[in-house]
């Protein structure tokens, strides 16, 4: 039985950014097995480990040599490959050359009565130790980093300087070099707890040596240690920690030997809005806040140390000093900001550029006020709500120039809410300001009130229309301003019951940019923005499980409003799935008439030419025109579908008793006009012809 080996490969570097390290882990998990498979290297398993200063590949059950391989390739027919004298033609020569053979090495074989030429390649087994150095070096260069650069005088690029390399197959060191580092059997331990070099006697012991040097070499294990430490602190204090996934991942990849410790800040800082405190701890220092049973912020927090556990008291004291300084700043900024009402800061927005071609944030605020007024009228808000909407639109960006937000950027909007309340604005205005950036991402909560939703909608729509007007809309996979996310947020708010016309809002927003002096083709940009929202709506509906042809059938009716598109698509899908009879009636009635109609004749039916069998259909169509239009006006798409389905009987009777293609041209054309009128009733609802393939 062939001997199996263990491979250990470690890239030692200076501290890798936390999220880059996580990405590299995931890349190697796919890259390493694929590379071994491509090189025909048999192995039992592969593991990827890491810490902030290292990436480790462990491969177990690695064979001595690659598997010998026999490859056969079928070529052209023999009569094409050889001429009448048996000499190889260009076809045979080219085929052989492509397989690394000479024409005389080709074989002839008969397949189903036809003779072909075949090429057979025998690929011998190769010692794995000869292949691994190049493969391992390839791993270093193949990792994709968000940002990499050259270090010192070396030409190679990497995320951070490479300081050491371990490359061992059992106890044999494999020759690998990169950017001045040459492979050996020496790894390096924790900077504080086990500094310096540590010898690895054999590949299988690399992880043990690393662990003995106070490095936890697995991301999942470091996370477990942190979570267990946090749980112990929670049990001891009776408080609950907040561990946001993104911050936790960052902390996990910032420490090689993590140790959660509880710390304290002065209670006086709890007078500052807790969002600033949490921002200072989570965003700036990567600490975890602790909350009491009522989910109120306490003056205790958790740090994750990467230092000597024996020095825990000193570590805690140092971190508390850092937090105290940050919270001192926060308290000072907050108190300074409160010396002026929120409206005071609006004029200062003229010093902040929104976008170089679209002016300042103050101009954006002015546009939002105009758009808010139009939205209030469209939504038929009460006088009080309309006033709150306009006021919130005017003030929603004011906190961007306050001291607190300049220093703690993640609390924009939230601080505006506090300052609005302190300035005597209504609770609804303050709440709308605080929530106007929502939803920020998929699954985020929508603003709670209609006023809040409309402020958020106006803000997002102004950005979308503005950037499209200066040619900065998304292209392909590029969406640097996250406009697709903003559009999805708007569609979600419309579907949540915000009763306004998006098309009218787009017109109003573009008009505000034109009044400001921005130069653009209004009709072309409007069409782009409308199509942008329609496309987002289509994607959202498909993600929700709605069939593509259902969506296409609704869009064929020329609907532009996302909420209407969604309502109609879901109603049509519901009819298809749960009311097969109604759907069958709709599809059949439409298909029979649509197959014969002639749009060029128009739909002006001459009542005097109608025969007795035609009148029931004419009457049913006339009635349906009114009832369907009324149902659509009332946003009752299901009722419209029901009215259309009722046309099945009269259209069946029409075709049973009437010869449409009568010899009399006047009768024939009149009957075709009746069918045109029949189909036109469907046109404002959906194009059922696009769903015929599903039947």
What layout of secondary structure does this protein have?
Blueprint: E1 4-13, H1 18-38, E2 45-51, E3 54-63, E4 69-77, H2 78-81, H3 90-98, E5 107-111, E6 114-123, H4 128-142, E7 149-150, E8 157-158, E9 162-169, E10 172-173, E11 177-178, E12 181-184, E13 186-188, E14 197-199, H5 206-212, H6 219-237, E15 240-241, H7 245-252, E16 259-264, H8 274-285, E17 288-291, E18 297-305, H9 312-337, E19 353-355, E20 359-360, H10 361-378, H11 383-395, H12 403-407, H13 414-422, H14 427-435, H15 450-469, H16 483-495, H17 502-516, H18 522-543, H19 548-555, H20 562-578, H21 580-594, H22 615-633, H23 637-645, H24 648-657, H25 665-683
Parallel strand pairs: 9-12
Antiparallel strand pairs: 1-3, 1-9, 2-3, 4-6, 5-6, 7-8, 9-10, 11-12, 13-14, 15-17, 16-18, 17-18, 19-20
Helix pairs in contact: 8-9, 10-11, 10-15, 10-17, 11-14, 11-15, 13-14, 14-15, 15-16, 15-17, 15-18, 16-18, 17-18, 18-20, 19-20, 20-21, 21-23, 21-24, 22-23, 22-25
Domain DALR anticodon binding: 589-691
GO molecular function, one term: ATP binding
Keywords: Aminoacyl-tRNA synthetase, ATP-binding, Cytoplasm, Ligase, Nucleotide-binding, Protein biosynthesis
CATH domain topology of the largest domain: Hypothetical protein af1432
Shape: flat
| Biggest sheet descriptor | 7 strands, mixed
As a whole number of angstroms, the C-alpha radius of gyration is: 36 Å
Highest CATH level, the class of the largest domain: Mainly Alpha
| Mean residue pLDDT | 91
Pfam families: DALR_1, tRNA_synt_2f
Subunit structure: Tetramer of two alpha and two beta subunits.
Family: Belongs to the class-II aminoacyl-tRNA synthetase family.
Protein name: Glycine--tRNA ligase beta subunit
């Amino acid at each position: 039985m062939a001997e199996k080996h263990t491979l250990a490969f470690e890239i030692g570097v200076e501290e890798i950014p936390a999220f880059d390290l996580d990405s590299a882990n995931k890349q190697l998990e796919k890259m390493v097995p694929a590379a071994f498979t491509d090189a025909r290297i048999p192995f039992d398993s592969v593991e990827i480990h890491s810490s902030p200063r290292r990436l480790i590949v462990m491969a177990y059950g690695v064979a001595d040599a690659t598997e010998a391989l026999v490859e056969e390739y079928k070529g052209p027919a023999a009569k094409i490959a050889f001429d009448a004298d048996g000499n190889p033609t260009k076809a045979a020569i080219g085929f052989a050359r492509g397989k690394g053979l000479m024409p005389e090495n080709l074989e002839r074989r008969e397949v189903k009565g036809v003779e072909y030429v075949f090429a057979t390649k025998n690929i011998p087994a190769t010692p794995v130790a000869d292949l691994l150095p190049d493969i391992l070096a390839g791993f270093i260069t193949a990792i994709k980093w968000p940002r990499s650069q050259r270090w010192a005088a070396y030409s190679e690029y990497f995320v951070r300087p490479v300081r050491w390399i371990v490359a061992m197959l059992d106890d044999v060191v494999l020759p690998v070099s990169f950017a001045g580092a040459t492979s050996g059997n020496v790894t390096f331990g924790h900077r504080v707890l086990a500094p310096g070099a540590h010898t690895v006697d054999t590949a299988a012991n690399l992880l043990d040596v690393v662990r003995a040097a106070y490095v936890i070499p697995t991301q999942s294990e470091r996370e477990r240690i942190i979570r267990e430490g946090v749980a112990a602190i929670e049990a001891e204090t009776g408080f609950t920690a907040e561990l946001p996934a993104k911050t936790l991942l960052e902390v996990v990849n910032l420490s090689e030997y993590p140790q959660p410790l509880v710390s304290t800040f002065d209670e006086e800082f709890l007078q500052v809005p807790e969002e600033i405190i949490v921002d200072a701890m989570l965003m700036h220092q990567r600490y975890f806040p602790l909350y009491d049973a009522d989910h109120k912020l306490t003056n205790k927090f958790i740090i994750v140390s990467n230092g000597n556990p024996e020095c825990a008291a000193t570590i805690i004291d140092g971190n508390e000093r850092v937090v105290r300084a940050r919270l001192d700043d926060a308290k000072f900024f907050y108190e300074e900001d409160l010396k002026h009402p929120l409206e005071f800061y609006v004029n200062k927005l003229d010093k902040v550029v929104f976008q170089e071609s679209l002016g300042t944030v103050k101009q954006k605020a002015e546009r939002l006020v105009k758009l808010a007024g139009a939205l209030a009228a469209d939504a038929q808000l009460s006088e009080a709500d309309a006033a709150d909407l306009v006021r919130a639109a005017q003030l929603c960006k004011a906190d961007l120039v306050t001291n607190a937000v300049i220093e703690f950027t993640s609390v924009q909007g939230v601080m505006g809410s506090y300052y609005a309340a302190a300035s005597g604005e209504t609770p609804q205005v303050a709440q709308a300001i605080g929530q106007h950036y929502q939803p920020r991402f998929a699954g985020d909560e929508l603003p709670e009130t209609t006023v809040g939703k409309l402020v958020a909608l106006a803000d997002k729509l102004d950005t979308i229309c503005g950037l499209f007007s200066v040619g900065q809309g998304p292209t392909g996979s590029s969406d640097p301003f996250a406009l697709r996310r903003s559009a999805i947020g708007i569609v979600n708010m419309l579907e949540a019951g915000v009763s306004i016309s998006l098309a009218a809002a787009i017109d109003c927003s573009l008009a505000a940019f034109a009044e400001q002096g921005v130069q653009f083709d209004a009709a072309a940009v409007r069409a782009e923005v409308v199509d942008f929202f329609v496309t987002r709506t289509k994607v959202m509906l498909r993600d929700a499980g709605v069939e593509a042809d259902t969506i296409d059938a609704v869009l064929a009716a020329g609907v532009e409003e996302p909420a209407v598109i969604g309502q109609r698509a879901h109603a049509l899908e519901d009819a298809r799935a749960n009311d097969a009879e109604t759907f069958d009636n709709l599809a059949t009635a439409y298909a029979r008439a649509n197959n014969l109609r002639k749009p060029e004749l128009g739909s002006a039916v001459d009542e005097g030419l109608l025969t007795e069998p035609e009148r029931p259909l004419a009457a049913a169509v006339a009635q349906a025109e009114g009832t369907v239009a009324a149902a659509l006006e009332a946003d009752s798409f299901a009722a419209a579908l029901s009215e259309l389905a009722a046309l099945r009987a009269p259209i069946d009777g029409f075709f049973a008793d009437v010869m449409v293609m009568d010899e009399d041209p006047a009768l024939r054309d009149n009957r075709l006009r009746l069918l045109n009128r029949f189909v036109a009733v469907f046109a404002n609802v959906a194009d059922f012809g696009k769903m015929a393939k599903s039947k």
